From TrEMBL, chain B:
Organism per entry: Jaculus jaculus
UniProt record, GO biological process: positive regulation of smoothened signaling pathway
Region (Disordered): 340-369
Protein name: Tubulin epsilon and delta complex 1
A GO cellular component entry from the record: cilium
Name of the coding gene: Tedc1
Length: 439, 420
């Protein structure tokens, strides 16, 4: 029914809009998946994970790693004790029996720092055997390497009592390797009750979220990163020496001279097209403002007249510029291919990009507010899409209706469909009745 | 003598160092040796430089895809992007051989890109490790890949199909809105639950990326590595900025070494098929709009001018009359120039275009560059209202036009849908 060219263009545009929406939907769903997973109970490995993110399993300062020096059990502040209790309870709740946990995952995980190991700085490397025992109890694969690495943090002089009692609830039988390094464990073992399986209460963000803490190495990297960005951006604003700027300008000029052609690039043409479109919208707005106010006296009339004529002149200029652009595009076409468009967005020519390193914040105060903000953003984007499609439809369908002579049923159907698409956003239809004179 | 030699040595050493810094700061940067060979147009330097330009110019190129793409495709893409950016040298475009030629031209192209703007900083900003929940204020629903302008249509297309597609689009919009709502509520919860875990001076909760990192230690490794890579590149970029002068002096010599070819010849169009893509279509749309506006203005202005001319004779010609007219003319001119300037500026204050980190905070003590959600909401609401207005106005226009066209037919009754 529709001519092929017209149909092709229409379908292409609408399909493009559909694709854009699907892409956005995909992105949203990816984020949704991640967020949902975070809000559920976390699937954690109690051995190698703890809420207060200890340093990354990078080789920490050598003195700590592979040494099993019994740090003296010092006195600690009440605060530390309380913290420890909290952590202990969290750990208690975080133990699960994990079946089928891929051994690969364990192998890759370098000796991570359980709070037990950090805590067991009271000299006991007892965590090693208890770890081993627990592993033996819980998993098929033994991890001998894990036992040997004690990434202890001697800075944290916390007593191991509570924690070790916790740990020793597990069948310590296989606990083996009771070396000379476990002075502290013995007394704990006496107090160890028989080993009931741990409560499998998992970690949820809701309850324990506030205990989380970013790892130190990470924080260092982030601060270094911010510092470097600040330096780079200040270097740019204060700008490199004049000599460098002059050298660059000279190079560009020479290149231009040697090469010859100086057409406006496709990127520039597109930018101008965008700006002209904005111009049209603003001019139209202004015109409507003028026309909506009835002039009170001759001065207002005159002003209105002058404005309208001024607007006319501007529109003339814009049209003229547009013709120039069209001519440039026609002759020696630099086609704005898709990749070009994408890079245009990302590499604004002439370096107008405003680089900022500083983390600028967008503050919101309630879920409601956030939702409103996001909804409005989306609605604005959708409206722009809709307006663009409306213009495309107008440009394609109205000429068709004008030029179709046959006034029969197909033409009426076209009119009806066009009306619904163009005037009602495709949501409602109208009815056409033929009013035949009564016979 | 010795001092001069030492100075020369220093100068000679400065160039490779500068180039090495440049390479380190670029993704897939080749070694300084490649650059040197490219000056002499050696063919073995070409593949590395094609690869580099591809990585620089194509936002799609990442570590994984870049290597697997056919070199031919890389070459074509680089050429076409350079052209669309307005690269003046046509030698590269004219040579239809692929990979192994024109290393000197590639070097010149790279230098052109570097000289024009802060390319390094832009590249770094593009690939920047994002730790926060980034929100950008102007969201554009842009189609992901190349436009489907070569869509094959099977059979005649009915307007019903168009209607169906539009309906599909409306459903997608609704879906997007509801997914977005859910996402926001989840984000808000995560922010709420992790309050107190971040040590930043201005906010205290974690972002999704940070929480995810804590949940999954493998993730931590990845993020750390990414951060460290970026830090290395940043340091290299700083070094480059300090010593780039020597590079530009060298590039002058490279340009000089180019065979003075036939510069003034206008480039032949590529053998690639010239598909009038969106660029042409956009111009046509704008032209159509402007012409419609022109007609409307004419319709409005002409009768007013006629009425005015008729009236003016009866108003007398005193001196204050002339001054009054003059002042009016000047005011109108000023207003119109201001209007013209308003669209010539780039859209929106640049601050709003950058993505911001989303942060929940009850007591709003915003820093100098922070935005508040309430203000943004107000701004977006006005924008929404104005877009709504334009849409309605377009629809009204269509309605009038259709009424006019269909009104020529007698004997038909048009019943509009209820609620109109």
């Amino acid at each position: 029914m529709l001519p092929a060219e017209c149909a092709r263009r229409l379908m292409a545009e609408i399909q493009g809009a559909l694709d854009a929406c699907s892409e956005r939907q995909r992105q949203l769903e990816r984020s949704l998946r991640v967020s949902r997973r975070l809000l559920r109970a976390w699937d954690v490995d109690p051995e190698s994970w703890e809420p207060a993110g200890t340093p990354i399993p990078e080789p920490p300062p050598g003195s700590e790693t592979k040494e099993e020096d019994p740090a003296p059990a010092c006195a600690q502040s009440l605060q530390d004790l309380k913290e420890l209790e909290l952590l202990t309870q969290a750990l208690e709740k975080a133990v699960r029996v994990r079946k089928g946990m891929s051994s690969a995952r364990q192998r890759d995980r370098t000796p991570s720092l359980t709070s037990a190991s950090t805590v067991a700085t009271a000299g006991t490397t007892a965590s090693a055997p208890s770890q081993a025992s627990r592993q033996a109890g819980n998993r098929a694969s033994a991890r001998p390497t894990k036992g040997t690495h004690q990434a202890m943090d001697p800075a944290k002089n916390l007593p191991a009592h509570k924690l070790l009692s916790v740990r020793s609830k597990t069948p310590v039988g296989a606990g083996a390797g009771t070396t000379k390094h476990e002075p502290g464990l013995r007394d704990q073992q006496t107090t160890a009750p028989s080993a009931p399986p741990r409560t499998t209460e998992a970690f949820t963000l809701k309850e324990k979220g506030t205990l989380l803490q970013l790892p130190v190495a990470f924080r260092k990297a982030v601060s270094k990163n911010s510092r470097l960005w600040a330096q780079l951006s200040s270097m740019q604003t204060s700008d490199s020496t004049d000599a460098t700027r002059a050298a660059k300008a000279q190079f560009l000029q020479k290149l231009q001279m040697v090469s010859g052609s100086s057409r406006p690039s496709a990127a520039e043409i597109e930018a101008e097209a965008r700006s002209l479109r904005k111009a049209c919208a603003l001019l139209r707005l202004r015109m409507q403002e003028e026309l909506s106010v009835a002039p009170a006296d001759w001065m207002e009339e005159y002003r209105c007249l002058l404005t309208l004529e001024g607007l006319q002149a501007i529109v003339e200029q814009c049209l003229h510029r547009l013709q120039e652009l069209q001519a440039a595009v026609m002759g020696g076409l630099p086609e704005p291919c898709a990749a070009g468009k994408a890079t245009q967005a990302s590499l604004p020519c002439g370096g107008k990009a405003d680089l900022s390193w500083s983390p600028q914040l967008l503050l919101y105060s309630s879920t409601q507010e956030l939702q409103t903000l996001a909804t409005l953003k989306l609605r604005v984007a959708m409206l722009e899409q809709q307006i663009h499609l409306e213009k495309v439809l107008m440009a394609e369908l109205l000429p068709l209706i004008r030029t179709w002579e046959p006034q029969g049923a197909p033409w009426l159907a076209l009119c009806r469909a066009a009306y619904s698409l163009l005037c009602q956003g495709g949501e409602r239809f109208l009815t056409i009745l033929r009013d035949d004179p009564a016979d | 003598m010795g001092r001069r030699r030492r100075r020369e040595d220093r100068a000679a050493g400065a160039l490779p160092e500068a180039i090495a810094a440049l390479s380190r700061s670029l993704p897939a940067g080749p070694s300084p040796e490649i650059f040197r060979r490219a000056k002499f147009d050696r063919p073995e330097a070409a593949p590395a430089l094609w690869q580099l330009l591809f990585r620089v110019l194509s936002p799609l190129a990442t570590d994984k895809t870049g290597a697997t793409l056919v070199p031919e495709f890389q070459v074509r893409l680089v050429k076409s992007v350079l052209r669309s950016q307005g690269y003046p040298r046509s030698v590269l475009a004219q040579r239809s051989e692929g990979n192994s030629q024109s290393s000197r031209e590639l070097l010149l192209a790279l230098s052109w890109l570097l000289a024009r703007g802060p390319l390094l900083e832009q590249l770094l900003a593009q690939s920047r490790v994002q730790l926060g929940d980034q929100v950008s204020l102007f969201e554009v629903l842009a189609r992901p890949g190349p436009p489907a302008s070569c869509m094959e249509i099977e059979g005649p297309v009915d307007l019903h199909q168009v209607q169906w597609l539009m309906g599909k689009l409306r459903i997608r919009w609704r879906q997007l809105l509801s997914s977005q709502q859910e996402h926001c509520s989840l984000l808000s919860k995560i922010h709420l639950y992790t309050c107190g875990s971040h040590s930043h001076q201005r906010f205290s909760h974690l972002s999704v990326a940070e929480t995810e990192m804590l949940r999954d230690p493998d993730n931590t490794q990845q993020l750390l590595q990414a951060l460290e890579c970026e830090n290395v590149r940043l340091e290299a970029a700083l070094e480059w900025r300090r010593c780039e002068l020597v590079f530009w002096q060298w590039m002058d010599t490279v340009l000089g070494a180019c065979t003075p070819g036939a510069p003034a010849v206008p480039s032949q169009p590529l053998t690639l098929p010239v598909i009038p893509e969106r660029g042409l279509g956009e111009l046509e749309l704008v032209a159509w709009e402007l012409q419609a506006l022109q007609e409307e203005l004419q319709e409005a202005a002409e009768p007013r001018r006629a009425a005015w001319e008729a009236q003016v004779s009866s108003l007398g010609r005193g001196p204050e009359w002339i001054t009054a007219r003059k002042t009016l003319q000047e005011t109108v001119e000023q207003e119109l120039t201001a209007l013209q300037r308003s669209w010539e500026q780039s859209g929106g204050p640049p601050q709003l275009q950058r993505p911001h980190r989303l942060v929940r905070s009850k007591d709003g003590t915003p820093g100098p560059q922070d935005l508040q959600a309430a203000e943004m909401i107000r701004m977006l609401r006005t924008q929404e209202a104005s877009l709504d207005g334009s849409l309605r106005q377009l629809q009204d226009q269509c309605q009038q036009e259709l009424a006019r066209l269909a009104g020529t037919l007698p004997g038909l009754i048009w019943i509009l849908a209820p609620g109109h």
